[in-house]
Structures are given as structure tokens and as C-alpha cells.
């Protein structure tokens, strides 16, 4: 039975006179990994920025059944929509531990926050080894783990990840892969946005292909894997 956590309907976004999204619709069901793939400039980040409350739009975005048009990004985080941006937005001079604690700044249940700190350190043992290290001195892969860890500290109902594999070595991508699978097995709903279609197809249950601001294809991971256009244009290029 359908149980949508995120519903995007007929979304248009403009930067000045330039249209970045044109009639975009998609749904992420509770418990699943939703995927969005598409080339450079397709509008993927724009879509996430709108969903996270950073951009004005025409159309409808519902989270947990509620129209979120009037909510600002902080309210959305408090409601459980936590966005891990492509830029990671870490506090560079703060330690790993301090960055993780910042992710929980809007939460009041200190016991639950402590339990989630343990959960993040279990998920990413490399962070546990580097609790006191300044974020800016970490490798790109470690910073990505920290960004995901900090997002998890917000206690997301929906964890939104923008290009988590961008620029990372294969061995680190494997760590991110394992973390995504573990989280989803534990019931975490995710929206995964990737230029790396191979990675997205490995994890997402259902996907949308975004090209030039429009959803050109949507369907199950199996349908995407069986689609000649997808395999020829997108798979295997990473
Ligand atoms: P990438 O994978 O390279 O990050 P993307 O699919 O995330 O690409 P967006 O960053 O959403 O694509 O960009 C979609 C379109 O909107 C592009 O044509 C881009 O130049 C334009 N755009 C993005 N941000 C702005 C902005 N702040 N002002 C004007 N145009 C923008």
C-alpha cells in the first residue's frame, strides 16, 4: 500500500527569468530509498533546495502529508526533513564531535542525542577514531561521512543526500554504500541524488531521471536497469 513520506507535484522553479524546473513530480515512499539521476545542470540540486525550503516555487510539496509551503528550512529539519548538501557545509574549525553535536542543535531529548552519537560512531568508525580532529583537516571522504553523520544527528525521517559520492575514491564510496544500506535496513527513508547512476541504481528502489529541468523517466530500479537509454547514456560512465 502506498505510504508517501514526500510528495512533489508539478514543481516549477525559476532563477530570475530562467526556468530550472518544469512540472517536476515525484514521490518517496516511507521506508524506501528514492533516487534521482541526471546530468550536470539538470536541476537536481535545485529540486532538493526547493524541497528543503530554500527556494520559492510553484506547485506543491507535501512532507508527511502536510503542505510545507509555509515552513522554513529550520522548521523542516525539526519536522524530520534533513538535507545533506553537496557542499557538505561543515564547520571547518570545529572538531568531528562538535560538528556532530551541531547536527542535533534543535533537539531536546539529550538521551536520544547521546544514543544517536553512538549510532553515528558505530556507522562510521573512522569518525570515532577522529573525534577531536578539526573538520577542515579531514580527507574528502571523511568529510562526506561527517556530513552524513551530522545530518543523522538531526534525527531525520527523510534523509536527503545530494551527490554523496562526488569526487570520492572507490574504497570510500564502498563505506558510504554500506552506511546507506545499513540505515535503510534500520528503516531510514532516503532520497539519494546522484550523477553517478551506477551508485544510485545499486541503492534506490525507485528512481526519476531529470534532464533539463524535467522528469523524463520514472520507475523501479529494475525498469531503469532494463532501459537501453539509461544503460547507454548513464550507467558505467563512473
Ligand atoms: P550538478 O549535478 O552540476 O550540481 P544539477 O542537476 O544539480 O547539476 P542545478 O545546480 O540544480 O543542477 O542547476 C540547474 C540549472 O539552474 C542550471 O542551468 C544552473 O545553471 C541553474 N542555476 C542553479 N543555481 C542557480 C542560481 N543560483 N542562479 C541562477 N541559475 C542557477
From TrEMBL:
PANTHER family: HIGH-AFFINITY BRANCHED-CHAIN AMINO ACID TRANSPORT ATP-BINDING PROTEIN LIVF (PTHR43820). InterPro entries: AAA+_ATPase (IPR003593), ABC_transporter-like_ATP-bd (IPR003439), ABC_transporter-like_CS (IPR017871), BCAA_Transport_ATP-bd_LivF (IPR052156), P-loop_NTPase (IPR027417). GO terms for biological process: L-amino acid transport. SMART domains: AAA. One of its GO terms (molecular function) is ATP binding. The keyword Nucleotide-binding applies. Keywords: Amino-acid transport, ATP-binding, Nucleotide-binding, Transport. Residues 6-237 form the ABC transporter domain. The keyword Nucleotide-binding applies. This is ABC transporter ATP-binding protein. Signal peptide: none annotated. Belongs to the ABC transporter superfamily.
